[in-house]
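re: ur question from earlier - yeah i can do the single chain one, its not a big deal. heres the input i used so u can compare w yours
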Amino acid sequence: MTTYTICYSGTDCYLDQSLVMRKPEEMHSYNVSSGYIPSKIYHDLTRALGAQANCVTMNGCGAPYSQSHQNLPVRIWTIETVAEFPNDPDPQEHSVCNKAPAFRRAVDYLTNPLSMYSDSALGLSVEIIAVAGIASMLGVTLHLVPLGEFDHIKEYWDDSTAGGYTQDDLAYPVNNSMWNNTPQATAGHYCLRWNAADNDKITKFLSAFSRVALVGHSRGGVACLIASNYLAEWFASLDIKIIALDPVPGPGDWWPCLTQIPGMKNMEYVGIYAIDETSSGFNGVVPKVVGVDGSSSKVVWDPLSPTSDSKTISGWSNKNYTLLYTRGRHATVPGSRSSYGQGESDPINDNVGASGNLSNAYVINKLNAWGLNLTPITSDQIKQWITDMNRIPEHFEEMRTYNYTPTTRLGLINGWYYYNARGISSSSGSNPSSWNYLEAFIEYVTTDNINDVPNVYGGVTDPAAINNMRGLINSGVRGSYYKKYGGSGKVQPWQFLAEAFS
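and the output i got, formated as tokens:
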């Protein structure tokens, strides 16, 4: 079975993030071993196998997208009112084909504070990036037609506004009179079209590859979720594998395609989340799974809901759904050794970086299990990183008082109002009533269950000390939420990353 890999970078992260082509300060802020994981995985594969590496990598949204959007292998179709001459009293509707659009960057707020179109802030380009990754994998240009608008695109076709394309260039896939022909796929904002020549390329690709591994950090992790739905729609023969490193959609609309993934046969999800990230707007998405039941009716399983049951999904098991958490902040998980998760201006702390190195070791093991051939990390090195990480629980706790804002230590706002704990959700980043807290899903170590805990704590046997190493420090969350959620015994279990190697 041959696996193709797509690596998606996070917001304002480049496809060569932390590598030799980047600025020295950035390179220095990442681990030598892990680098920035999505970029490093792609680099290691291509360095070993060259053109035979079977992988592509994508820029993140924000500044990287703004600098590369016109080169993406996608075309976007819209209906626009076009005046044939100035002051035309009777402008006509036309089908218009455009390259991927530009979106504003966060820095644009400095010149236009009222701008509502910052790609860094809202991630408006994430869906386009997700589809562009699929197009790059297939070696084709994919045409994105707004959902339900294909008949209108044909009705108002005008060769003069079609960018040199003909209707034949939107001939495939056949029989797409409706979106979601595959019940497990959740519709995005577009349906995909391509031409006859590209249809041959795609057919050839599907004869050569049977599995796609999607790896991404932050909004790159969200791109993985979106891409999984587009893949499931028209390329259902592919086994879909997802590794999302602290997937964060941001403060915008968490629409269904980025909160749901397809519960198809052999689909696997691995999410690794940062327990010490308390920044406002950085809630992690824990995606629901869409499947069908025994009568082929659509069903949705929510891994954070005690009233939801994964057994209703036919042909798929929640054993293929892995939730892990580790110490550190949003940037720590993919390999930063920044002391407080603030980036290049921070001093380096290799004990903090040990957490990202463990993420990298786990990602390598999982990708190799899916058919790749990356050099695995030795067990002795993994044990050393676990020891290094477990030495500084108080430092990780202090990281919770920092926030991704121009003014540091605004994480305390979450401490006053949001328990100073990591927010997660399977449905909304803007509605507090839909938020949960990561600590509320994790079982405390006690004298009664300590024998069930893997021995990765250097011989420490005091339950309180082990819980502190794990990051279980917030009694408010425990008292208010644990019994309802994690203590119910009816939600998907979480595991501390250090224990996952045992």
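The mean pLDDT is 90. not sure if urs matches, ping me
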